[in-house]
Design goal:
It contains 8 helices and no strands. By secondary structure, the chain is mainly α. It has one domain (3-16, 29-181). Keywords: Signal.
């Protein structure tokens, strides 16, 4: 029942990674680099928070834990991910429009997408909290439904984020350490056991 949830979480990385930029190139525009640094300095802690939440969900799922434990862990993880996406939206919003063509539109669309993702994870938390942990079968069915929603969320429109990390802005963001994907060993408290 929980394997589907783990698979959906893995797919959610695509939305997250749209922020990290993977392009390279020579961009000498200091204004764009300054903008990217301002955003990326606030991105890294949120990426780590999301990664840690995903690890906690995967661990409780692989432990064959009791429904109440799964519910508690998933609820806390979804809240943490929701908070992280909200903070990412605030970081992009607070940085102002990137100094590129159509920067204001790109910024507004990215903030809207990040806030929508935050709201969607908050909604998943509410649904997990409402599951009946006393009935194993109903709990499993409910968790499957949540996994389906999570899968849709992870595949949903990350176009705005991809636009944010394209062109000059994407090149500048890719250079910033704060926008680099955190290494698995950097996950707080995660162990290979």
């Amino acid at each position: 029942m929980n394997k589907k949830l783990v698979a959906a979480l893995s797919g959610g990385a695509a939305l997250l990674m749209a922020l990290t930029g993977c392009s390279s190139g020579d961009d000498s525009d200091n204004k764009v680099n300054d903008w990217a640094k301002q955003v990326c300095d606030q991105v890294q802690p949120q990426l780590k928070k999301i990664a840690a939440a995903n690890v906690s969900i995967q661990q409780v799922t692989s432990d064959s834990s009791k429904p109440a434990d799964v519910q508690k862990t998933d609820s806390a993880a979804f809240q943490s991910i929701s908070d992280a996406y909200k903070a990412l939206g605030s970081a992009v919003n607070g940085a102002g429009a990137p100094p590129v063509k159509d920067g204001a539109t790109t910024q507004q669309e990215a903030v809207k997408e990040l806030n929508a993702t935050s709201a969607a994870y908050a909604g998943l938390k509410q649904k997990v909290d409402a599951l009946d942990t006393k009935d194993q079968a109903r709990f499993a069915d409910g968790l499957t439904g949540i996994a389906d929603e999570l899968d849709k969320l992870s595949k949903s429109g990350d176009d705005a984020l991809q636009r944010l990390q394209s062109g000059e802005v994407g090149k500048a963001m890719a250079k910033q350490p704060g926008c680099q994907k955190p290494s698995p060993s950097a996950s707080d408290g995660a162990s290979a056991s």
